[in-house]
Specification:
Largest sheet: none
CATH class: Mainly Alpha
Strand content: under 5%
Number of helices: 23
Number of domains: 1
Structural class: mainly alpha
Radius of gyration: 22 Å
CATH architecture: Up-down Bundle
CATH topology: Growth Hormone, Chain: A
CATH superfamily: MFS general substrate transporter like domains
Oligomer: single chain
Order of helices and strands: HHHHHHHHHHHHHHHHHHHHHHH
Amino acid sequence: MANTTSEEIRVTKGPLLLDMTGYQWTVLLAAWLGWGFDVFDGLLFNFVAPNCVPTLLGLPIGSPEAQRATLHWTGVLSSVLLLTWAIGGILFGKFADALGRTRTLLLTMLLYSVGTALCAFVPNMEMLVLCRIIAGLGIGGEWAAGAAMVAEVVPEKRRVEAGALLYTSAPLGLFLATVVEHQITAVMFPGRPETSWRYVFLCGLAPAAVAFLVRLFVKEPERWKAAVSRGQPPRIADLFTPQFRRVTLGGLAMALVALIAWWSCNAFIPVIAAQLARSAPEFQALEPAMQQGFIGVWKATATNYFNIGGLIGTLLTVPASKFLGRKVMFAIYFIASAAAIMAAFGLPMPPQQRLIMYFPIGLTVFGVFGSFTYYLPELFPTRLRGTGAGFCYNAGRIIASAGPFLVGTIAAQGRALETLFYVGFVPLLGLLVLPCVTETRGRNLDDFDEPEVAQTVSSR
């Protein structure tokens, strides 16, 4: 096993689960927790926005003015998060190659933990935007370090399974955000919407504890040590040399299409679910004091459908990638994503049924992301793996950031469902660039390394 150190082999004796040692599972767990809390911290605002935005703007919660302002600011702050996510991903992707995967993972987790927790103390929207910028930088940087670390430590034949397992923490992170918001706002502090959202943001400190787990138990991959010892610092410009230009643009295109679809749909789940709840016949029959709880249940239900679909879809990328290839897998998911979005927001159906349609959206729009954690690291050699994967996965967010802003702006005018229907055309655009995408099925990670690095790793 070329990328297994003697230290890793000593950790576990006897039968191995998925052919991975105890240390390799520890590395996967550390990256899994880092990414799960990454998503958790990144999406907390979307759940508290209906209470947070009106409070900071001095508007009555639940009023028409507050609903319009929430839609607008959800779009604005989602776009801000995407922009800073992109900057952090590109910046810390280079750090991961220059300073190490483990150090970068630790630094980014601490950054987004502190940034999210500071949101609990903001007095106005301007300070909230600033704190979300801090969190966004860390959130963007964590993915590249974790994905590169896992790809370099696990056995070659289990890279796809490990990558997909790594991304299963994303729907679970989203689920955790749903649970935390509901428990704090509806159970612990009912009737206090003006202040309960601040306690939700404080929960963003939780990943800081996981960061210490990374510091204590996870070492730098031997493959990275061999590459960095050659003294060739990573450069963004290297991604656009004739050797890597095609793989870079192909990986960027796949990530861009998936990101626009995901953020345009997911950023507005709580808002759309709240609108559907208010349009349900039983909502009008409830006492005003119970209506907020009814809306909370619908928001949780929509998110759970999206999460469960995303979890299943993530795992299904494993057989699709291994047996059909990466390019065919992307084609299937993009076609199914377009169909799910257009059906959910274009067909006439009662509110409850439209809520259920978040399951097929999650299965496809969310599920396809399970492939990026193993596909993008496969495209680049070790010295550029963090830089390349981080650039492809995050640079697209600069363009994708326009999606939530436009959707939020148009939705604020009362055309939310119609706007989301047109988002369904985005995945179809991905089919146009598939012929230029690099197929990596059947290739070992060594195939992407310079011969000197591969030989050094194999000898350790």
